[in-house]
Design brief:
With 465 residues, the protein is an alpha/beta fold. It contains 16 helices and 14 strands. The chain has two domains: 175 residues, Aspartate Aminotransferase, domain 1; 255 residues, Aspartate Aminotransferase, domain 2 (3-Layer(aba) Sandwich), CATH 3.40.640. It has a seven-stranded mixed β-sheet, sandwiched between helices. Helix 4 packs across helix 10. The two termini are 40 Å apart. The chain binds pyridoxal-5'-phosphate. The site of pyridoxal-5'-phosphate has 15 residues, from helix 4 and helix 5.
């Protein structure tokens, strides 16, 4: 079957050479890396799909902006360009640049969450979860049930489970819920989108109980594209109109700009109503100065602020988004043809292959997602990562290995970096591995691990038959 594709809405002006190694070399390299893909050198990777975070290709306009960047410590023109762009797109009164998404969390959460409180989300991203805990509160995940069934093709699998949210509030008591976080798109569930209707409903519940709503907005542009494509009542709206309405339902947003705003480093924090939250804004500024730097640079260089101001507009261009989501759909269609399961329908920033389906013989505590990640590297020099039990880690109290809801291998696609030929290599490599999957009898065991966030640093070893 001929699979449809959306051609690149750009041409290439500058190239970066990548090198294919031999299979023998890769087997040696991954062994030297203790079977942990984070330990590989970038130059030993042919196609790097470890993450879509900060791995974007900037445009000629952004690079021109880098040269124009104003490096004044205070009041740089690049700061005003960024704030004006962000106010225009999101419609918020107050915008604070920070160096990345987790910095926005670190600056905002302690000003809102009190010790012993809870925060509810459609699903917390790792660093967001960590900053809720660091603020003394507890995170509660509340995604719709269908998100946990990779083969169930329903739209907006990233949504909040509204009934469960009401139940959680009743169970824990309104006064103990300090914050609600809507993650768009829902990264941990596979880049799955959240509908505008769901955001509106969540916002209504928050208003009813007087709980503030934070939008974790790393992939707000991809989410808006899905809303336009799949939510009937929004099909005639522009991407910008959808973004405006989405953000109108929040009180704050925290954003990693390393994703949809197509830069390599940056973050934003927004507060919608300057008057209502004037005291909070003072605390945000104080935290920013302590942790990030003066308020008009927030841990970024002037050149970063300038590139980000331009990237905000490039990232919401509908032609770009059509091509971007088109890449995911092209790769997913190839996997459909080959009978390879993934979190379906495909989400916004990558394809999350169902490694549990591919290796039914490998139990969760031998890490099927990591097995596939290692095989992809050995097969074609492709670097991906496990989103499963290997990443989840151990129970902090009993130290037992936890079993994750999914065993995914994530192929995260950087923006404007890889071509259709690269997508074909990814699909071909997965098909090769599928054909010999039954020959792989055993997974991996961990020989060393740090106490938290172990997947970045752990050492592994193949289990012998
Ligand atoms: C990446 C990400 C973050 C954290 O951002 P960093 O820039 O990596 O610090 C927070 N939330 C979501 C949903 C993300 O994808």
């Amino acid at each position: 079957m001929a699979i449809k594709y959306v051609p690149e809405p750009f041409r290439i002006k500058m190239v970066e050479v990548i090198k294919m190694t031999t299979k023998e070399e890769r087997e040696e390299k991954i062994k030297e890396a203790n079977y942990n893909l984070f330990n590989l050198k970038g130059q030993d990777v042919y196609i790097d799909l470890l993450t879509d975070s900060g791995t974007n290709a900037m445009s000629q306009e952004q690079w021109a902006g880098v040269i124009r960047g104003d490096e004044a410590y205070a009041g740089a023109s690049s700061y005003f360009n960024l704030v004006n762009a962000a106010k225009d797109i999101f419609g918020y009164d107050f915008i604070q640049p920070v160096h990345q998404g987790r910095a926005a969390e670190k600056v905002l959460f302690p000003t809102i969450l009190k010790k012993g409180q809870y925060a509810i989300s459609n699903m917390f991203f790792d660093t967001t979860r960590a900053h809720v805990i660091l603020a003394g509160a507890r995170p509660l995940d509340c995604v719709v049930a269908e998100a946990k069934d990779p083969s169930k093709r329903s739209k907006f699998k990233g949504n909040m489970d509204i009934e469960k949210m009401e139940r959680l509030i009743a169970e824990h008591g309104v006064e103990n819920i300090g914050l609600v976080v809507m993650t768009i798109t829902n990264n941990s569930a596979g880049g799955q989108p959240v509908s505008l209707k769901n955001i509106r409903e969540v916002s209504n519940i928050c208003k009813k109980y007087n709980i503030p709503l934070d939008i974790d907005a790393a992939r707000y542009a991809e989410n808006s594209f899905f809303i336009k494509k799949d939510e009937d009542e929004c099909k005639d709206m522009t991407i910008k109109e959808i973004i405006r309405e989405t953000f109108s339902y929040g009180d704050f947003f925290t954003m990693s700009a390393k994703k949809d705003t197509i830069v390599n480093m940056g973050g934003l924090l927004g507060v919608k109503d300057e008057k209502k939250y004037s005291d909070l804004i003072l605390k945000i500024k104080a935290n920013c100065i302590s942790f990030e730097g003066f308020t008009t640079y927030g841990g970024l260089s002037g050149r970063d602020l300038e590139a980000l101001a331009i990237g905000l507009y490039e990232g919401i261009d509908e032609e770009f988004l059509k091509y971007r989501i088109g890449q995911m759909e092209y790769l997913a269609a190839k996997l459909d043809d080959a009978g390879i399961a993934y979190q379906a329908p495909v989400g916004g920033h990558g394809v999350f292959v169902d490694a549990k389906k591919l290796f039914p013989q490998i139990p969760y505590n031998e890490f099927p997602g990591q097995v596939l990640a290692i095989e992809l590297y050995k097969e074609a020099g492709i670097r991906t990562c496990d989103i499963g039990s290997y990443m989840l880690g151990n129970d902090p109290d009993t130290n037992e290995q936890l079993q994750a809801d999914f065993e995914f291998t994530r192929l995260a696609i950087p923006r404007r970096v890889y071509t259709q030929a690269h997508l074909d290599i990814m699909a071909d490599a997965l098909i090769e591995i599928k054909n010999r999957a039954h020959e792989i009898k055993k997974g991996y065991k961990i020989t060393w691990e740090p106490p938290i966030l172990r997947h970045f640093q752990a050492s592994l070893e193949p289990i012998q038959d």
